[in-house]
Design a protein that fits this description.
Order of helices and strands: HHHHHHHHEHEEHEHEHEHEEHHEHEHE
Number of helices: 17
Bound molecules: S-adenosylmethionine
Distance between the termini: 53 Å
Low-confidence stretches: none
Shape: globular
Mean pLDDT: 96
Number of strands: 11
Strand content: 15-25%
Length: about 400
Amino acid sequence: LTGAQLAAADRRLCQELTYGIVRWQATLDWLIARKTQARPQKTRLQNLLRAGLYQIFWLDRIPHHAAVHETVELARHAGFNTQAGFINAVLRSYAREAAATRQLLAGLKTEQPHLGYSHPEWLVARWQQRWGPERAARLMEWNNTPPRICARLNTLKADPGKLLTQWREEGVEYDFVRRDWFEENLVFELKSHRPLNRLPSFQQGGFYVQDPSTLLAVRELEPQPGDSVLDFCAAPGGKLTYIAQLMSNTGRLVAHEATSERLQLVEDNCARLGVTCVQTVLPSTLNPQPSTLFDRILIDAPCSNTGVMRRRVDLRWRIRPGEIRRLRVMQLDLLRQAAALLRPGGTLVYSTCSLEPEENREVVDEFLRAHPGFKLERTRELLPFAEGVDGSYVARLRRGVAPV
Ligand code: SAM
């Protein structure tokens, strides 16, 4: 899209079509199967049918006849001359039966929720077992809704008055976001704006784009100016740069990451936001020497991302049950490595954006069983259907002062 010469409205439509079709793929394929005796189609043909049906049933600004006509033209353009009649027939028959089909789609949400809400069946079963059908449905509804864009004020470069004035000058429309885990005038929803990287307020580091849920782990870490803090999985740096702002850019803040490419993202964000107290390091460069142990460590572990599915539209079709088990082993390993770098009495925060207990409470419990010198102080889970933010899990642990 960056290279395409598209007007802003066409660009938005192209994005909406692409994301929407990926999100609703199972439901779209169910519709297609009903009219094709479930005969498999060539992928490009299937995609054309999906695109036509998406416009008919999920968009309300495109007249049905235009959706049918454009899809048929596109099919011809793509070399499907002989199938143009077939595409026309499928789409036209759905356009004729639109009202009845809408009722079928509504019923599908209760009868076969994985098809009605377009999610993998195993994931739906897992969530229904945990929260019951009604809350599982609300979660899937959430996953199918395009995410809001939220900005966290960067107090190292701006204050609320300055940022809001600049936004008004730039034509940015915003709203205030309030939650119990951060103060007022810190997070704003951006409701309408030009591309962010072209806004001076963004270029000058006035804010960082992140979901409100991501601030909870940092608040639980409670970093103070002058502290020695390690962010063990730091890139791209959303939590790290918020830690730096709570430390007033003073003290020792170490950003640890798996690769130098990921660390480059951290460095770019720190440069834009005016964060100067950060030192970036790669694995195997930190030693548990008593003189260099940290006061506070954050482990924001790589995870299945089931709490942020609305942002990662294709994730639901890639994730496998075995992946959750594999991640859990890695998460526990990262937690062990990081814990060895914490000073006695120090605070350790483990967080993920997963909703799965295997990656959250079970990792922490297993760690605690093997490390009796650590105590669990508290945990909190943010659930999209309860809090209206991305899913997130945070556990705060303290290392005892006696040797571990
Ligand atoms: N805390 C980050 C933020 O707020 O912007 C997001 C971190 S993301 C959930 C997890 C990160 O862990 C990824 O950037 C990944 O590269 C990193 N990672 C994976 N394996 C790692 C390892 N062995 N050591 C350090 N970081 C690792």
